[in-house]
Structure formats: structure tokens, C-alpha cells
Amino acid sequence: MSDRIEFNWVIIAQRIEEAKAILRDIGMPSAQQNERSALTLLALLDLQPQKVWRNANNPLMGITPIMEFIAQYYGKQYKPNTRETIRRQTVHQFVEAGIVIVNPDRPSRPPNSPKTVYQIEPNLLLLFRSYGIDRWSNQLEIYLTSVETLRQRYARERQIQRIPVTLAPGLTLSLSPGGQNILIEQIINEFCPRFTPGSQLLYVGDAEEKWGYFDRKALAALGVTIEAHGKMPDILVHDRQRNWLIIIEAVTSHGPVNAKRRNELQQLFAHSTAGLVFVTAFLQRRDLARYLGEIAWETEVWVADSPTHLIHFDGERFLGPT
């Protein structure tokens, strides 16, 4: 952070009110016309209080740099736990409105990546630069007549980048791109047909959507009722022929089925009428090497780059409930 800045609170208040007015004029909901959203917009435009609107820019910024910008130039110190509030209640809405683009430098980057960045859409940057001058009204009118088309275009681009996964004949799930979901696709397309043929997918998590797919009724028929997403594994599969509930963790950003996680999952599915089978999945063997010492006994390991093999960690039987 640079040398300490003397805040001119009059100019700061003026810039915040101008940003609020812009958000109102472009049709953002009232929940996104507050100070937090105004400051986030100013940060994404790299608009320090002393700058005029025509000097706005659109750098790539993550949530933490946005918060640091706000603190440095506008004197507003958000607590670290406010990070998710800014992302979920301001930036997410900016993205949905087509004001902000996610990861324009690398669209395949997973949305929950710590490297995720945001950027003001270039056409909107031109509009914002005209604020306070004569052509603002005309530019705003042009934007408002095209905004739906703009939103549709970005929604279509995000959809194209998603990963289609066939869960059953006629049933396709569209996962958000990158990261863990690449491995989840491999598990569904490679692991399940080989090791659980004819099984039924009950749950598939999605890094972006959280509950990607969930057959609550089928899981409840096995005696299990779950409400909290955070406790769920990445994939649940019911091998109906052998009556096994196969619990799979996809290791990219989170760890494997270690002793602690195995106990958590056993408690979560304690009432299951199907036998529990625990599987940790990795994309590559070098990923497995990082976690080799953590993997719990009586569990299985599958590696996507060697899809025809399983690694069995002790126990009385190979690929079966203990």
C-alpha cells in the first residue's frame, strides 16, 4: 500500500453519490444502489476520488484488491469476513446485469478460484466515462435500449463455457467450467460406467451452483435426509444391484477422504440402508502423491489419468462397504 492518503471527505461523498446515481440510472435493483455497491463500482473503474469520470479504467480486479482499493482511496475499511458479502451481494449482481465480466483473461478459470478476477464490460466503461458531460443522457439511452441484448450475449457465452454431463438418458447437467468440475465430469463418464455400471446418480455438486443435481427423493428412500449443502460429498451414487451408496470426494481444491472426513460422512449417512463405500478421486497421480499420507483406511482411490484402475486402502474387501 502506498503512503498514507489524506482523505477529502467532501469529494469522497460526492463520488459515492455519483456512483449510486449511475447504478440507479442503469437500472440496478435498490439493493445494489447502496454505498457498498457504489464503492465496488468505483474500485472496478480505478476511479480515485480526485479523478474525473472520463479517466475511468477497467483493470482486472479480484475481491480482495477491490476491498484494498476502497480502504486506500475512500477510507472505508471492510472486515475480512465482508469479502463474501461483496462478492455475493454486489459483484454477483454486476455480473448478472452484464456490467462486469468474470475472468476475461481466462474464461475457463473456475468461479471459486482464488485467482478469479472481474472487469467492467468495455461498452459500459465508455458509458461511465461520459458521466457528468452533455453526452451522458444520449449514451445512457443507447445503453438502456441494448442492455437486454448485452445481458443475453454474456449469459450465452457463460453457458457455452459450461461442461455438459449426461446423468441418465434424457437428463443432462450443465456444470460450471474448470477446476473441480472437470474431475467430476471424469468421475461420471469414466469411473461410474467401469466400477458402478447401472448405478443411479443421487447427487452431483457444482462449484458455482452448489446443488448441481440432487435426487432428494431417491436418497430419502435409502433412509437419508440432508439439508445442508456444506456437509455433502462431491458425488453420491447408488449401486442398486449391490445396494451400495458410493460416496465420492473429488480432490482439486479440497482434501481427500481422510480419517476425519470419513467419520463425518459416516455420521451424515448413518441411517443409510445401503452399505457405504468411500472413494477419493484425483485428476493425476501426482495429485495423489500430495495426499498419500492422509487417505483413510477402508477407502478407495481412483485417478482419472489411469481410469481402469483402483487403489484399495486395506480393509476386508475391495470396493465394498466395511
From TrEMBL:
Domain BsuBI/PstI restriction endonuclease HTH, first and last residues per copy: 14-151
MF GO annotations: DNA binding; magnesium ion binding; type II site-specific deoxyribonuclease activity
Keywords, comma-separated and alphabetical: Endonuclease, Hydrolase, Nuclease
Ranges where the BsuBI/PstI restriction endonuclease domain occurs: 163-316
GO biological process: DNA restriction-modification system
Keyword Transcription regulation: no
Transmembrane parts of this sequence: none
Domain of life: Bacteria
InterPro entries: BsuBI/PstI_C_sf, BsuBI/PstI_N, BsuBI/PstI_N_sf, Restrct_endonuc_II_BsuBI_C
Protein's name in the database: Restriction endonuclease
Protein source organism: Desertifilum tharense IPPAS B-1220
